[in-house]
């Protein structure tokens, strides 16, 4: 079976490509037209994430790059090129999409909804009836913040935290409608928040936590004047301030932000490499005649206080979780609140049910816990790392995912 993949230069798509090349001689990459040399970017990203040199050397002969535009009918191709592409495929993985949590709905629909529509048109046009593997998100569950979200659920009754969630929900509706219309199976994969412990690099694709970091950093820069240079005390904190619980300067050296959150809240964070492996394993199982949907999630959530501690490491802020929006918000709090659906996740206590995945895959579905140090490793720049407090022992080496 010959496969095509959209979004191969993205955070998840890059790992999916690496995994697909384990079982396929070659892969067609549907790259965004005009975005630069996709083969070079893929090769460089795989190099930075540890791919062996022998694997990298064979990429030019194993990847076929077709430049497309997902926002256009026929993916921006001529009728003949579109037909030839469709007829050459046995499976289409649709991983491309916008993860801009602060994006507006029309913008996100152009990429996430219309892009899905045009990929489905490609699948419908192929004589070999290629199977569709659509990457969605567990957050199509919307703004329901407690209880259990099940894989068979797909409704908008609770509304959405942001336009991103709504656009991915609408894309899933298209997949279901396509399956019914053509009587063809489809696979919908719903990952949670994907992370990595691979150190960040300007040439690597960004991921959701980096998006949140950028928003917080931009908000702080726009509303808070740079503090005067301080002389460091022996323990590394500016004179006159105390050390925080995570080895950072105390609250006196950074602005405080009050944001609505639940101290017992939790978020589902999953290593992207494990997510790609689970997705490919699921795609190899027999399919039903309809839409098979799976939550690709961690079996253990990360407590919200851990996420807050991570954000405080990344951005010079002190974050206080409160029950309700402050009646006297600061300029910084107002700026952060301007981005809908970002900090709202700090209130979430729901769980994503993945019984089906664990039943089908067994130990292969299980992953080591995600902790603060691992999250920091995947966000800290490679040029340096945050100094560890002197009284904090080194973290044990993480247990690899199954």
TrEMBL record:
Pro residues compositional bias, start-end: 387-402
Domain of life: Bacteria
Domain Thioester reductase (TE): 5-279
Short name of any one Pfam family annotated for the protein: NAD_binding_4
Comp. bias (Low complexity): 222-234
Segments of this protein annotated with the region Disordered: 222-262, 383-402
Name assigned to this protein: SDR family oxidoreductase
Species assigned in the record: Streptomyces anthocyanicus
